[in-house]
Design goal:
- By secondary structure, the chain is α+β, with helices and mostly antiparallel strands.
- It is built from two helices and five strands; from the N terminus they run ββααβββ.
- The protein is 22% helix and 32% strand.
- A five-stranded antiparallel sheet has the order 2-1-5-4-3.
C-alpha cells in the first residue's frame, strides 16, 4: 500500500498561491481544518473579519468567512472565499485517494 498525504492547496481566483503535501499522519482531520482556517485568515482577511469569524453565531459581528466545508465521503476540506484553501487526501503520486470499493474489497 502506498503512502498517503494531505495535499493542501491555496488559490486566489484561479491562480495557485500555495501547494504542499504532508504525510497523512501529521494532522488529524480537526487539525487540518484548523490549518485551512489559519491559511485563509492570513491570506485574505482583515483583523476585524478574523474576530468576526470566531464570534458567537448570530451576534452583530459574526461572519462565516472561516467556515470549513467537507465535501464527499473521502475527506476534502475547503475554507475561504477568495483566496480559498483546499485539503484532500492523495496517494504518493498526488492522485486523489479513494476508499476501497466495497464490491471488490476482500477478494
Amino acid at each position: 500500500m502506498s503512502s498517503r498525504y494531505w495535499h493542501i492547496e491555496g488559490y486566489d481566483s484561479l491562480t495557485q498561491i500555495y501547494d504542499r503535501k504532508v504525510k497523512l499522519g501529521y494532522f488529524t482531520e480537526r487539525q487540518i481544518q484548523s490549518v485551512l482556517m489559519a491559511l485563509a485568515a492570513k491570506a485574505g482577511l482583515s483583523f476585524d473579519e478574523i474576530v468576526g469569524a470566531y464570534a458567537t453565531r448570530r451576534s452583530k459581528i459574526a461572519n462565516d468567512l472561516l467556515s470549513v466545508h467537507r465535501d464527499g465521503p473521502y475527506p476534502i476540506f475547503l475554507c475561504g472565499g477568495n483566496p480559498h484553501f483546499i485539503a484532500r487526501v492523495v496517494d504518493a503520486d498526488a492522485q486523489a485517494a479513494s476508499p476501497p470499493d466495497p464490491l471488490t474489497a476482500g477478494r
